[in-house]
Amino acid sequence: MQQGWLTDFFRQNDSLMVFVNVLLQQLGLPVPAVPTMMFNASQATQSGQLLVLLMAAVGASLIADLIWYQAGKKFGYSVLKFLCKMSINPGSCVNQTEARFLRWGVWSLVVGKFIPGFSTVAPPVAGALGMPRTSFMLASAAGAALWAGLALLAGFALQAQIEAGLVFLSAQGIRIAVIFIALVLSWLVWKFWQKKRFEKLASIPHFSATEMSDTLKTSALPHIIDLRSPALIAETGTIPHAMVSEVKQVGDAAKHWSQNEMIITICACPGDAGAVHAAHTLRQLGFKDVRPFSGGFDAWQELSAQHPHLLVKA
Fold first, then answer.
1. Nearest-angstrom CA–CA distance, 235 and 226
2. I want to staple 109 with a disulfide (CB 3.0 to 4.6 A). Which of 139, 154, 192, 252 is the partner?
3. CA nearest to 58, candidates 141, 152, 153
4. Can you tell me whether residue 255 is helix, strand or coil?
5. What letters, b where the CB count within 10 A reaches 16 and e where it falls short, cover 138-164?
């Protein structure tokens, strides 16, 4: 591929390329948009061209954000669980995003564009929490304009450096491709290692819904630590007598309990990730019988259909 062909292609389709790239990224696909914006901005010769690129980027971002906002508003935390299955850290994906949103308010949508992963999960959180659509769109537009504007200005200011980079890529294409493939393979190996590491952590004994049903026939509920986020608890109901906590604070939640008593950890995250991590933390603190609830809150909801006193609806 020659530099001239690449340059001509982007010049003829610059705003369309930016629009499509930003749209796909904000919808959640792993396609970085900043390099595309910077490259197209480096080919601009007038400020009017930068404005068109900015409008394309902001428009694409708003479309994607509105789609996720409406999904969160309609489906609530179901769409968040789907998103967090693709997260590097599914155990804390929803809780961390919600905590940031509640702490920062509308500013979370402005600065969220600069936080990897957060920009995709924040809009459905806003929808699920009932943020007004007008406020959401204004904050989302401001965040997209700031994020895209900085990328475009950087590309425009670094025209000479980017042009030199294209020349280098043209001359060293095969070597660059080898390096890129090596980086992708390294990333895949890292992801595989993370998966295997979590599978090892998740191999600890779980507490099933059947075991809970049998326990209820002979004795009271064991100690339960509910790791769901406050907004999810408000939406779906509370577990009676459960201690609400975050994964990092489970030690404080259980500090008044005997280390010989059974403790059940429960979350609403993919693979019971949060419950598994919390159980390991408590075991390291000396608690001898700690088990994640198998199937998480979905399984608990099914169990509550047979035992209504297990879940108090909001």
1. 14
2. 139
3. 141
4. coil
5. ebbbbbbbebbbebbeebbeeeeebee
Q: Rounded to 5 degrees, what angle do the CA atoms 30, 34, 40 make?
A: 125
Q: What are phi and psi of 150, to 5 degrees?
A: -65, -40
Q: According to the model, what pLDDT value does residue 92 have?
A: 46
Cα angle 298, 295, 29 (rounded to 5 degrees) comes to 80
3-class secondary-structure state, position 91: coil
Instruction: Give CA separation, 55 vs 144, 145, 148, 312, in Å.
Output: 10, 8, 9, 48
Q: What pLDDT does 99 receive?
A: 66
Average pLDDT per 10 consecutive residues for the chain, totaling 314 residues: 54 80 87 85 82 93 93 78 59 60 76 77 82 90 94 85 70 72 82 80 90 85 88 82 88 90 88 88 93 90 87 74
* Amino acid found at 172: Q
Q: CA 128, CA 130: separation in Å to the nearest integer?
A: 5
CB of 62 within 8 A of CB of 137?
Answer: yes
Global pTM reads 0.65
CA separation for the pair 1, 5 (Å, rounded): 7
Which residue shows structure tokens 């259980």? 254
Task: Give the DSSP letter of residue 311.
Answer: -
Encoding tokens for residue 45? 């010769």
CA distance 258 to 207: 19
The DSSP string of 195-250 is HHHHHHHTTSPPB-HHHHHHHHHHS---EEEE-S-HHHHHHH-B-TTPEE--GGGH
Q: Which amino acid does the sequence have at 295?
A: G
Angle at 175 between CA 158 and CA 5, to 5 degrees: 55
